[in-house]
C-alpha cells in the first residue's frame, strides 16, 4: 500500500458485555482496531461473534443496560467517544459517523416516506427548511443512482425494492455536511447477488468521490475481497487475525481465517485460497468461555496450550498480526 | 383508500341488520309475555290483549319481524311505553349528555393513558414503570359503579369539593342551547360575560369523566406500553438514532406513530365499550344521558325503549369502529396506498 494516512478512528482494547438474565455475555473482548482516512476496514466473522456490538459501541447504539463497556477507549478525531454524553454523541451521529444496516426492509421507518426520513436528518443537523432538505435529498438520490428521484422521495419503504431501499439507506448515511466514517453493518447480506454487487460498487464509488472511511461488517469473504483495504477477523468476541487484504488471502495464519476462506467459491480473484476441510463444530457459548483460545473445540491445529491461555499477538509483518499459538503450522499448500 | 372505505361502508349494512335482528329476537323469544311483564301482575286479560295488539304481538313472528324491520329502517323506533314519547326523540334529547361525557372520558383516557404508556415504556423496569402498570392493573379491575361511589364519597361528601351528580347547578335556571353543556358554557360566557355556567359544567363533568375513563385509561396505557416496547426494538429506531435524530423525536415521532396502530384500535373499541360503561356511570352520577335512560327503561320494563336504546348504541359502536378503521388507514401507509 501507499503512504499511511492519518488515523480517523481507533478502538483500543474494547471489552463489552451484556448482563442478561441468563448470565453475562462477554460479546467483545479486548478488541483493538484503527481505521485510517479514506480506508475500508472489514470486520469479518461468523454470526454472533461480536461484530455488530463492536460497531455499535462506536456511536453508543448498544442498549445500555443490559450492555456495558468493561474496558477500553474509542478515539475519534481526538475525543474518546465512550466518555460522551447522549446529546454529545447525538451530534456526531449522522454527521461524522453514519451507519447503514443489514435489513433495508426493516431499517427504514414504514410510516414515513423515505424522503421525509432523510430530509429529517438534514434538518436535524443543519438549518434548513423542509423544502431545501427535500431538494438535498433528491440530490443524494441522484448520487446513489436511484432512478426518478423526484418521485422516489415520496415513496414509502414498502414501495421500493430491496436494492432501492438500501440505496436510500446509503443516501441517509450521506445526509451530512462532512461524512467521515460510514459503518456498514452487513449492508448486502439481505440482497441477492446482482444487487449486492451493485451496492458494493456504489459504496466503492462513493468512497472515492467523498473522502470517507468505511467500517464494513460482513461474514462473507467474497465481500471482503471486493471491498477491503484491511481486514480484522473476529471469533467469539476476540480479534484473531488482522492484515492487509492481500496477506489475508495470500498468507492467512489463523486456522479460523483458513476456514472462512474455504467457504469462498474458487472463482474470485484470489485463486490460491486453498481448499481445506470445512469448519466443523459450533461457536462456543459466550457466557462460559474460559481463558484459552475460543476456537480450540473446532481447531485442527489445537495443542495442549490452547485450552489454557489466549495466545498473545504475533507480529508477522508491519501489516499482519495473528493471535494463535500454532500459527507457524498454518502454512499455505 | 376510497375503495377501502366504501368496502367498509358496504359491510356496515349486514352488521346493522344483524344487530336489529338480534335485538328483535332477544325480546320476541324472551320467556314470558312482554305485554304481561310490562303491565305487571294486576293487569287484566283485556288490557293485556290490547297492549299485545298495540305492539303487534298477536301477529305471527315472521310478520312481526317484517313490520319491525320496516319501521326501524325508516328510523321509527316506536313509542316509549313509560312516557308515550317517540323513542327516537327521547334518544335525541339524551344523546348530547352521553356523548359529552363519553367524549371527555375518552380524551382523558387517551391523553393520560398514552402518556403513562410511553413513560412506562421508556422507563421500563424502573419504579415509574412498576407504579404505573400496577396502577393500571388496579384500574382495569375496578368496577365502574364502585369507583363512581368512592369518588362521590371522597370528593363530594368528605371534601365537599364537587357535586354528586347532574350536569349543571340547578339554581342557575340554565336553558341549554346545544345540549353540550361545556360548549353552552363557553357560548354563554361570550354572550353574558359570566364563566359560571362553564365552570359548573366542568365541575359536574369531572368525577363522571374519571369514573368512566379509568378503565379505558388503564387499557390504553398498557397497550401503548407494550406497543412502544415492541417498536423501540425495531431496526428503524436504531436507524433514526444512528442518523443523530434526537431521542425525544425518535420516541414521540418515529416510534409513537408506529406504536399508534394497535392503540388506535383499542381506543376505538374502548370508546364503543364506554357506552356500556356509561349506563353505570350515568346511573351513579344521575347523569341524564342514554345510559341512565336505558337503565330506567329496563327497570320500567319499557321493552320498545330498551330495544331502541340497544340498536342506537350498537349502531354508534359500529360507526365508531368504521371511523377507527379509516383513521388506521390514514396512519398506516401500507393500507392507505393499496
Ligand atoms: N442486546 C443484547 N443483549 C444481550 N446480548 C446481546 C445483545 N446484543 C448482542 N448480544 C450478544 O452479543 C453477541 C454478539 O452479537 P453481535 O455483535 O450482534 O454478533 P454479529 O457478529 O453477528 O454482529 C451475541 O452472542 C449476542 O447474543
Ligand atoms: S491458538 Fe490453538 S486452538 Fe486457537 S486457533 Fe491457534 S491452534 Fe487453534
Ligand atoms: Mg451483526
Task: Outline the structure in words.
The complex is a heterodimer of chains A (333) and B (338). Chain A is of the alpha/beta class. Chain A has ten helices and twelve strands. Chain A has helices at 51-58, 86-92, 114-125, 130-143, 149-152, 162-173, 193-209, 221-227, 245-250, 255-262; strands at residues 7-20, 23-36, 40-44, 67-76, 79-80, 97-100, 181-185, 213-218, 230-235, 238-244, 314-317, 320-322. In chain A, the strands form two sheets. In chain A, strands 6-7-8-3-9-10-12-11 form an eight-stranded mixed sheet, sandwiched between helices. Chain A has a four-stranded antiparallel sheet with strand order 2-1-4-5, with helices on one face. The longest helix of chain A is centred in the middle third of the chain and has 17 residues, at 193-209. The relative contact order of chain B is 0.14. The mean pLDDT of chain B is 84. Chain B is built from 14 helices and no strands. By secondary structure, chain B is mostly helical. Chain B has helices spanning 2-28, 34-39, 45-55, 61-73, 87-122, 127-140, 144-158, 181-192, 196-232, 235-242, 247-284, 290-299, 303-331, 333-336. The longest helix of chain B is centred in the last third of the chain and has 38 residues, at 247-284. Chains A and B meet through helix 2, helix 3 and helix 6 of A and helix 10 and helix 11 of B. Adenosine-5'-diphosphate binds at residues 18, 20, 25, 27, 45, 47-53, 63, 66, 286 of chain A.
Amino acid at each position: 500500500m501507499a503512504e499511511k494516512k492519518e488515523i480517523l478512528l481507533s478502538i483500543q482494547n474494547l471489552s463489552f458485555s451484556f448482563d442478561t438474565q441468563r448470565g453475562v455475555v462477554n460479546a467483545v473482548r479486548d478488541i483493538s482496531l484503527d481505521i485510517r482516512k479514506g480506508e475500508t476496514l472489514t470486520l469479518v466473522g461468523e454470526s454472533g461473534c461480536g461484530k455488530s456490538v463492536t460497531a455499535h459501541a462506536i456511536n453508543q447504539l448498544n442498549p445500555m443496560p443490559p450492555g456495558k463497556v468493561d474496558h477500553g477507549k474509542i478515539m475519534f478525531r481526538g475525543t474518546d467517544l465512550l466518555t460522551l454524553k447522549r446529546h454529545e454523541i447525538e451530534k456526531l451521529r449522522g454527521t461524522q459517523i453514519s451507519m447503514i444496516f443489514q435489513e433495508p426492509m426493516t431499517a427504514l421507518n414504514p410510516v414515513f416516506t423515505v424522503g421525509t426520513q432523510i430530509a429529517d436528518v438534514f434538518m436535524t443537523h443543519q438549518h434548513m427548511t423542509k423544502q431545501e432538505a427535500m431538494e438535498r435529498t433528491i440530490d443524494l438520490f441522484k448520487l446513489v443512482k436511484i432512478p426518478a428521484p423526484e418521485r422516489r422521495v415520496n415513496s414509502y419503504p414498502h414501495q421500493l425494492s430491496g436494492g432501492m431501499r438500501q440505496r436510500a439507506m446509503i443516501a441517509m448515511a450521506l445526509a451530512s455536511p462532512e461524512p467521515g466514517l460510514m459503518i456498514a453493518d452487513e449492508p448486502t447480506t439481505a440482497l441477492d447477488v446482482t444487487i449486492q454487487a451493485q451496492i458494493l460498487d456504489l459504496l466503492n464509488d462513493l468512497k472515492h468521490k467523498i473522502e470517507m472511511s468505511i467500517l464494513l461488517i460482513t461474514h462473507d469473504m467474497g465481500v471482503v475481497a471486493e471491498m477491503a483495504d484491511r481486514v480484522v477477523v473476529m471469533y467469539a468476541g476476540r480479534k484473531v487475525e488482522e492484515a492487509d487484504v492481500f496477506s489475508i488471502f495470500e498468507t492467512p495464519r489463523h486456522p479460523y481465517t483458513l476456514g472462512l476462506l474455504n467457504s469462498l467459491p474458487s472463482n474470485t480473484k484470489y485463486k490460491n485460497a486453498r481448499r481445506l476441510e470445512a469448519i466443523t463444530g459450533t461457536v462456543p457459548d459466550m457466557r462460559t468461555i474460559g481463558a484459552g483460545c475460543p476456537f480450540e473445540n473446532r481447531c485442527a491445529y489445537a495443542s495442549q496450550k490452547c485450552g489454557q491461555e489466549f495466545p498473545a499477538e504475533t507480529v508477522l509483518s508491519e501489516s499482519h498480526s495473528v493471535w494463535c499459538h500454532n500459527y507457524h503450522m498454518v502454512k499455505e499448500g | 383508500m376510497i375503495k377501502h372505505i366504501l368496502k367498509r361502508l358496504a359491510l356496515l349494512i349486514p352488521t346493522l341488520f344483524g344487530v336489529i335482528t338480534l335485538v328483535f329476537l332477544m325480546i320476541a323469544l324472551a320467556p314470558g309475555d312482554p305485554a304481561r311483564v310490562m303491565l305487571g301482575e294486576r293487569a287484566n286479560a283485556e288490557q293485556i290483549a290490547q297492549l299485545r295488539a298495540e305492539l303487534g304481538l298477536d301477529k305471527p313472528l315472521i310478520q312481526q319481524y317484517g313490520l319491525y324491520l320496516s319501521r326501524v329502517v325508516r328510523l321509527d323506533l316506536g313509542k316509549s311505553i313509560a312516557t308515550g314519547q317517540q323513542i327516537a326523540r327521547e334518544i335525541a334529547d339524551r344523546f348530547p349528555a352521553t356523548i359529552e361525557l363519553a367524549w371527555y372520558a375518552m380524551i382523558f383516557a387517551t391523553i393520560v393513558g398514552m402518556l403513562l404508556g410511553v413513560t412506562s415504556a421508556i422507563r421500563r423496569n424502573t419504579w415509574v414503570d412498576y407504579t404505573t402498570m400496577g396502577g393500571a392493573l388496579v384500574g382495569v379491575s375496578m368496577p365502574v359503579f364502585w369507583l363512581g361511589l368512592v369518588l362521590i364519597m371522597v370528593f363530594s361528601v368528605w371534601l365537599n369539593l364537587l357535586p354528586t351528580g347532574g350536569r349543571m347547578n340547578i339554581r342557575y335556571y340554565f336553558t341549554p342551547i346545544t345540549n353540550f353543556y361545556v360548549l353552552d358554557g363557553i357560548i354563554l360566557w361570550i354572550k353574558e360575560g359570566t364563566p359560571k355556567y362553564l365552570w359548573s359544567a366542568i365541575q359536574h363533568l369531572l368525577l363522571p369523566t374519571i369514573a368512566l375513563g379509568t378503565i379505558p385509561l388503564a387499557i390504553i396505557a398498557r397497550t401503548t406500553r407494550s406497543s412502544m416496547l415492541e417498536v423501540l426494538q425495531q431496526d428503524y429506531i436504531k436507524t433514526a438514532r444512528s442518523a443523530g435524530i434526537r431521542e425525544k423525536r425518535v420516541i414521540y415521532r418515529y416510534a409513537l406513530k408506529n406504536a399508534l396502530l394497535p392503540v388506535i384500535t383499542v381506543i376505538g373499541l374502548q370508546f364503543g365499550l364506554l357506552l356500556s360503561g356509561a349506563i353505570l356511570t350515568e346511573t351513579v352520577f344521575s347523569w341524564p344521558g342514554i345510559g341512565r335512560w336505558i337503565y330506567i327503561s329496563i327497570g320500567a320494563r319499557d321493552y320498545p325503549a330498551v330495544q331502541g336504546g340497544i340498536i342506537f348504541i350498537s349502531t354508534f359502536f359500529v360507526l365508531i369502529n368504521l371511523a377507527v378503521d379509516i383513521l388506521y388507514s390514514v396512519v398506516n401507509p401500507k393500507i392507505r396506498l393499496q
